[in-house]
Amino acid sequence: MKTTIQTWTPDAWRSLPAAQQPVYRDDAAVEAVLAELRELPPLVVPEEVDHLHALLAEAAEGRRFLLQGGDCAEAFADCRGSIIQNKLRVLLQMSVLITHGGRTGVIHLGRIAGQYAKPRSGDTERIDGKEVPVYRGDIINGLDPSQREPDPRRLLEAYHRAAATLNHLRALVDGGFADLHHPEHWDLSWSREDAGHYLETLDQVRNSLAFVQRLGGLPEHLRTGELFTSHEALHLPFETAMTRFVPESGRHYNLGAHFLWIGERTRQLEGAHLEYIRGLANPIGLKVGASMTPESLRKVLAKLDPGRRPGRLTLITRFGAGRAEAALPGLIEAARSEGHPVLWSCDPMHGNGRTAAGGLKTRAFGDILQELQEVAALHRACGSRMGAVHFELTGEPVTECTGGVEGLDEAGLQRAYRSGCDPRLNRSQSLEMAFLIAQMIR
Ligand SMILES: O=C[C@H](O)[C@H](O)COP(=O)(O)O
Ligand SMILES: C=C(OP(=O)(O)O)C(=O)O
Ligand SMILES: [Mn+2]
User: Fold this and answer.
1) SS (H, E, C) 140-208
2) Of 10, 31, 170, 357, which has the fewest CB atoms closer than 10 Å, so is most exposed?
3) Quick one: which atom of ligand 1 is closest to the CA of 361?
């Protein structure tokens, strides 16, 4: 069944094939939970969503830069003050570095307060000689092999953990946590020889932050307060329950987050996910991998951005190092010739996965950097702009990606590998990456 934007309803997707959905044993239990979710207060309000939309429009027009980042799979157990603070801090520090070096205002968009559902390559995996269902994110099942049965009670838990996370983020931002000039906030374990260049820049950043603080506060474009939330709109019954009609605008908003995106594995043109997201008033994102052709991108753009509105759609490319050149120029040309003012983002994580000798999933800092550099250069060559980046990262000192000034190698991955899904940049790798991005986009 085809619906037009006039006939779109939050449930219209139900008649279409939906990839990557959990199968629950007890449908009545799922229904009861969804009914409860529909009555709970929204996590964000339409005014904030519209404000983000306006900022993203400025980014699409080349006047701001979008920094999106957070866990691959947010864990319920990580809904803790220190972990949330560290994640916010690293995002804001990256933002300060990008603002300082790249001379551009930065929009902060966390993969946070709801990034709980994961698409997977397979349905099962082998653990200790036994085949078990894969982990699909805390909103569906548990990482422990004994908890792999999808449990509808997790949908409510996800709502409450997202609410608690967002509540803490809001308090941190309102309470002046964004005051980043204190030296202890910038303490890194890098040694001077390894990282003289970065440490010098850090000193400069610290000094200029302290200077403007003395003059009476940061100018608007440098203000580090605002943080928006985002997650992958994967679990469609949950997302539908968080979708609310807003009479003032006559539109439907997903008020579980400010920004939602559709992943590489669920972006089928006639599939349920695109049907669901196309009707939302939120700014939205779409992951775009090497299998996307200019022809299919045209059709996707017609569906997701019929109004050709700046800020509406962020295309998040994720090709892998060495693979953007074959794919990206044709996609840029397709969007341009159809008149869609998309914001181009680079996710240099998801095309660069590899398995380390010990079996852990990892990504190399050098590959991540290479893809960013290639994508930035290709945009420049095509008269376009990489106006955003998308990272899987954490503020914790994890050992999940190799490389960076600390020189983490594959043998060191075991030391503090915590991710339940994909490997994240740790704090020092994230800050180093931000330095390099600032140079790249200056
Ligand atoms: O986060 C992205 C995907 O869920 C992840 O890359 C899939 O990983 P898998 O190939 O191990 O299923
Ligand atoms: C699943 C993800 O990415 P992609 O859809 O690009 O594979 C993700 O961002 O975690
Ligand atoms: Mn991931």
Assistant:
1) CCCCCHHHCCCCCHHHHHHHHHHHHHHHHHHHHHHCCCCCCCCHHHHCCCCCHHHHHHHHHHHHHHHHH
2) 357
3) 11
